[in-house]
Amino acid sequence: MTGHNNGVNAMALSDDNNMLATASDDKTVRLWRAKFDGYDFFSVLVGHEDYVNCVLIEDIFVVSGSADRTIRKWNIDTSDCLQVFRGHKSLITRIICTGDFLFSSSYDRTARCWDFESGECVRVFLGHKRGVYPMTFIAAEETDDCDDNCCNRQQDDSQNNKDRLVTGSADYTAIVWSFETGRPIHIFKEHSGAITCMATDSQGKILVTGSTDHTIRTWNIDKGERVRVFVGHQSSITCITVINKIVYSGSADHTCRSWVLDFGDLARVFRGHQHTVSCIKYQDGIVYTGSGDGSVMCFDSKSGSLIRAFKGHTAAINAIQILDGRVLSISHDSTVRLWDATALPTNEVNHSQGEKTTVDISSTDNNTLGGKKTAHRMESDRFTPYIPYCNGHSTNTDSTQLPHNIDGDGENYAIDYNFYFSNTMVN
Fold first, then answer.
1. Edge-to-edge strands of the sheet including 38-46?
2. Which of 61, 84, 145, 422 has the most CB atoms in a 10 Å sphere around its CB?
3. Bridge partners of 126?
4. pLDDT profile of the chain (427 residues), mean per 10
5. d(Cα 137, Cα 191) in Å, to the nearest integer?
6. d(CA 325, CA 47)
7. Whole-angstrom distance, CA of residue 367 vs CA of residue 253
8. Distance CA 8, CA 395 (A)
9. Backbone angles phi, psi at 288, to 5 degrees
10. Taking the model in full, what pTM does it have?
């Protein structure tokens, strides 16, 4: 699937998988409509003045965030730009939608909440000292069938039964915010590097954060306490997903790992990539990974065995999606590819084996949070090489990530896309 004139940074699927949106460095969003054997080009959304960093589909709308500091809302059917959300002072890094509200994070050190219908900014979450990257929204628990004891617990801990936003930043912290007041409830401070990715367990009680300090940490969201530190990766953590009681993580050390959420034990090391693991998906016992080496790999989640590798991209893969026995991948080579992943044989191992421990893991995908459908992405569909800076010196030890300047209010956090991706080209 070709059409973009530069790297493809992010993608989103409609709920019925009939529409695909892709966002690119060429300043456009392209829409693709499903057909029997793939997706056909539908339309192109033109209006952003700089590269498009993130995209989502909500009902009949496409929403995109850009380095031009704006968010745009588009009509899928007509391709018209309906609204431009202005207020951020630097590039938009993430967007998530709850239906009524849109949340965005930015290098301007803030996250913002917007009324999805009117486009009005209704809340600014101000408190981070450096750029804000990943976000997670945790909806309030339903209390229709609450007994007396339950109600008493809610009175004692009322903040835990209200909507909350969690943000991660290059200032080494994650903050749990009250959606109602816009003020911090808890600040998690123990990381010694930028927080690049986060996810929660299915109940929205445990936050999992990954950092450039090479560690993963879990936190009790209600109590504001650190629970465990997962140590084992040899470089920055780039992506995380949580499936039931298993945490899957990808790293710039070229590996994917799985961990037991409750105990922090390492379960498997999935090896095979020759560059940063940029994205992870899980479905039906298979772990799918995309990498800076341009390949998508499929691992058996229990044995750690590499089942199959899809090769064809000529630059780093930024995101993958799994649907109906197929794998969608987007890359900085400007293409979108659709791979046939049907009937992956778990006993067909033609590549290197994953390291095994005595821990047996078995999990299934779970798309609920607190018994409700999630109104946010548990993990990002956009890989970003983060460049935290302090007094002009990088605190990230990855040699492939070097800075350049961006417009903003003096924020010294930037991405050198050209240098990064020139070092992830497939030989």
1. 8-13, 19-24, 28-35, 38-46
2. 61
3. 110
4. 91 93 96 85 95 96 98 97 97 96 98 97 97 95 61 54 94 97 96 97 96 98 97 97 97 97 96 97 95 96 95 96 91 94 58 32 31 37 40 30 31 32 35
5. 21
6. 34
7. 29
8. 27
9. -105, 135
10. 0.81
